[in-house]
User: Fold this.
Amino acid sequence: MEPFTMLTSIAAPLDRSNVDTDAIIPKQFLRKIERTGFGKHLFHEWRFTDYEGTQENPDFILNKPQFRKAKILLARDNFGCGSSREHAPWALYDFGFRCIIAPSFADIFYSNCIKNGILLVRLKSDEVEELFAVAAFAGSGLIAVDLEKQVVGAASKKFHFEIEPFNKECLLKGLDQIGWTLQFADKIDAYEAKLVTTAPWLK
Assistant:
């Protein structure tokens, strides 16, 4: 997993509340078990006007030229609600998003994103509104996210955000929970070796 430290990017403003995981990655694209290749299906029913995904909807925000390379997504309340499918963060990451900023997120979606290297930033609604205004100036309206300092900066303003220390450290080091555990492989091996004599019946 790629470490997340700082990110400066144009932000794509998705002006919708209660965006569920079926909108993020529709059910017909969940047949694969690999984490890659889902980006092309992100927001499929909004990005395209045909089922095959060959005709772009010119009115959808991610199809506008100035937002095609955005690495930050701005959203409204309750982003990521619905099912617990991990394919949703897979699709967002594969598309290129590394940070999502919104007033609130669904809990399971939040956890899934952190485990897949996407920083989710909760800000107050009025602060998010200010970032939407910055995003309107795509190309010059850049947003900077500093995970170490837990600050989002834009247009000379700074907004502080909270994140659990464990989640912060995992993102900074580019570790999922398995990767975190593997840091202590020598201690785990030593403990298991000790069990041979202290609790042989477990072997």
In short: The beta strands are 6-9, 11-13, 72-74, 99-102, 119-122, 143-146, 151-154, 157-160.
